[in-house]
Amino acid sequence: MRKLLRIVKAHDRGSISALAVADHLAAINNDVGITDASVGPRSIVAWRYRKGGIQNGGGGHQSYTSTTRDRSSPLPTIGNGMDIPAVIDAIAGPTMQRLEAMLRGESAAEVDEAEINAALAKLPDKWDEDLR
C-alpha cells in the first residue's frame, strides 16, 4: 500500500504519468492470487480527476492483459446516450470504401446516405437490463 501511495503522490507532483499509476494498479490486480477465477489477468484501470484539483478535471482509462497495456479498450464510449463505437462502425464501412478508392487514384463514389442511415437505424436506441 505504501508503494501505491508513493506512486500516486509522485503523479500528483507531476513526476510520473497517469499510465504509470495505472500500470502499478494493473500489476496489483495481476498479483492478487485468488484461485476461484473471480479475478483474472484482464483488467481496466479508470481514473477521474476532481474539478478544481491538481489536474482540474478529466480522466482516462487503460485496459490490460496481465501487466501489458492493450491497444484497444473494451470500455464502451457513450455520448449523449449513443454508443459511439457502434455509430462509427456504421459509418466507417462506406467511408473507408470511398477513401480506399481515392487512394488508388479512382474516382470515389458519393457517400450513400441511405446505406449509412439504414446501418444507423439498426442500432438500438434503448438499453435493456443486461446493458445490451
What's the short story on this structure?
With 132 residues, the chain is α+β, with helices and mostly antiparallel strands.
Q: What is the average per-residue confidence, as pLDDT, rounded to a whole number?
A: 83
Shape: elongated
**What oligomeric assembly is this protein in?**
single chain
Secondary structural class? alpha+beta
Fold topology:
Layout: H1 2-13, H2 18-30, E1 42-48, E2 59-65, E3 68-69, E4 78-79, E5 82-83, H3 84-103, H4 113-121
Antiparallel strand pairs: 1-2, 2-3, 4-5
Helix pairs in contact: 1-2, 3-4
Task: Please characterize this protein's 3D structure.
There is one protein chain. The protein is an alpha+beta fold and 132 residues long. The chain contains four helices and five strands. The longest helix has 20 residues, at 84-103. The chain starts with a helix and ends in an 11-residue tail after the last helix. The mean pLDDT is 83.
